């Protein structure tokens, strides 16, 4: 069987049975397309051996591919060829002895609580139409009230929910109106592996969300494309992850001193601030929707680093 044909069959099974996310499926498809491109034309699944897989990864290393990318490609090869062996497409699994590079584990970027407070307060002021002036404006009783800025109210709700509920950007963009329980202040989100969980959000996020639903969404819902989506783009369709990335980078980047900051920085910050405030690790794991406690434990390292830095600065015997 040709590699491309077998890959599509494997990916279809992953989507149906393991319910992997579309992003993971796209990444695996690109990884194995890269493998096929590195092989001689006409190579079939049964023709791939360990040496060819090792040469493929070696070439990726030489051209400067990130270690995380190579590790993911190794995982894709492991999964694909194990499946191919189970299906009888290869006489032996060539991926069994394929070693993955060790992933360098860097600590996530975290904004301070004070920096986030300034950013979110500024977003609230913009959503409410408050503009800093050197002199107060002269009131005109006969002038009509300025209409609300629906995008500003939405942007405020986006940032408050990302930080207040510690959700992933895909989870946030996938929310429908029915997923919000305003009475209990909870969201029903669908995470990795199509697993649902219920997460709480706080009073500031409640105010931002209520304001958006009252003054923002009705003005953005201009067409049938709006449907039941909670967060809408400027054209009335469901808000996409790319727009959220741009928003977070534009508003949060200057606060943390970085040119590229994504929505995950707010999730990282929320988890770290929860642990700093005394939350237990299991509760944070459940809130974040991590399958493994080990994934959540990286935030204890962040807290430890902050404690060590404070110690070095403040203790006379440090």
Word description of this protein:
The chain is mainly alpha-helical and 318 residues long. It has 2 domains: 3-86, DNA polymerase, domain 1; 149-312, hpI Integrase, Chain A, CATH 1.10.443.10. It has 13 helices and 3 strands; from the N terminus they run H-H-H-H-H-H-H-E-E-E-H-H-H-H-H-H. The protein has helices spanning 3-18, 22-38, 50-62, 67-86, 113-127, 150-164, 169-173, 203-220, 241-256, 264-276, 281-288, 293-296, 298-314, and strands spanning 180-181, 186-190, 196-200. The chain has a 3-stranded antiparallel β-sheet with strand order 1-2-3. A hairpin with a 5-residue loop joins strand 2 (186-190) and strand 3 (196-200). The protein is globular. The termini are far apart.
Range of helix content: 55-70%
Net shape: globular
Query: What is the topology, as strand order, of the major beta sheet?
Result: 1-2-3
Number of strands: 3
Name the average pLDDT. Answer: 83
The CATH level-2 architecture of the largest domain is identified as: Orthogonal Bundle
Oligomer: single chain
**Count of DSSP helices?**
13
Query: Do you know the CATH topology of the largest domain?
Result: hpI Integrase, Chain A
Structural class estimated from helices and strands: mainly alpha
Query: What's the level 1 CATH class of the largest domain?
Result: Mainly Alpha
- Main beta sheet strand tally, sense and closure: 3 strands, antiparallel
- Order of secondary-structure elements: HHHHHHHEEEHHHHHH
Stretches with pLDDT under 50, minimum 5 residues:
131-139, 141-145
**Per DSSP, what share of the residues sits in E-state strands of 2 or more residues?**
under 5%
Work out the radius of gyration: 24 Å
Give the N-to-C terminal Cα separation.
64 Å
Number of domains: 2
CATH superfamily heading of the largest domain = Intergrase catalytic core
């Amino acid at each position: 069987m040709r590699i491309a044909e077998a890959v599509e069959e494997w990916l279809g099974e992953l989507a149906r049975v393991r319910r992997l996310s579309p992003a993971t499926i796209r990444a695996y498809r690109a990884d194995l397309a890269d493998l096929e491109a590195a092989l001689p034309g006409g190579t079939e699944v049964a023709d791939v051996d360990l040496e060819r897989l090792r040469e493929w990864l070696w070439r990726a290393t030489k051209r400067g591919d990130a270690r995380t990318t190579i590790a993911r490609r190794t995982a894709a090869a492991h999964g694909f060829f194990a499946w191919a062996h189970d299906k009888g497409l290869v006489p032996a699994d060539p991926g069994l002895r394929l070693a993955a590079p060790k992933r360098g584990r860097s600590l996530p970027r975290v904004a301070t609580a004070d920096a986030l407070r300034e950013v979110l307060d500024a977003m609230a002021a913009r959503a409410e139409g408050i503009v800093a002036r050197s002199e107060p404006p002269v009131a005109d009783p006969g002038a009509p009230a300025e209409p609300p800025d629906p995008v500003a109210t939405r942007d405020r709700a986006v940032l408050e929910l990302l930080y207040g509920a510690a959700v992933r950007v895909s989870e946030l963009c996938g929310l429908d109106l029915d997923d919000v329980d305003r009475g209990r202040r909870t969201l029903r989100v669908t995470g990795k592996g199509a697993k649902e969980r219920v997460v709480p959000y706080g009073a500031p996020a409640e105010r931002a969300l209520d304001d958006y639903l009252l003054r923002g969404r009705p003005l953005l819902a201009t067409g049938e494309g709006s449907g039941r989506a909670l967060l809408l783009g400027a054209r009335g369709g469901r808000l996409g992850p790319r727009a959220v990335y741009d928003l977070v980078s534009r508003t949060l980047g200057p606060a943390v001193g970085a040119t590229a900051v994504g929505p995950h920085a707010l999730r990282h910050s929320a988890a770290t601030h929860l642990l700093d405030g005394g939350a237990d690790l299991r509760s944070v794991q459940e809130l974040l929707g991590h399958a493994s406690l080990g994934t959540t434990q990286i935030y204890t390292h962040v807290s430890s680093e902050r404690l060590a830095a404070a110690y070095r600065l403040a203790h006379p015997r440090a």
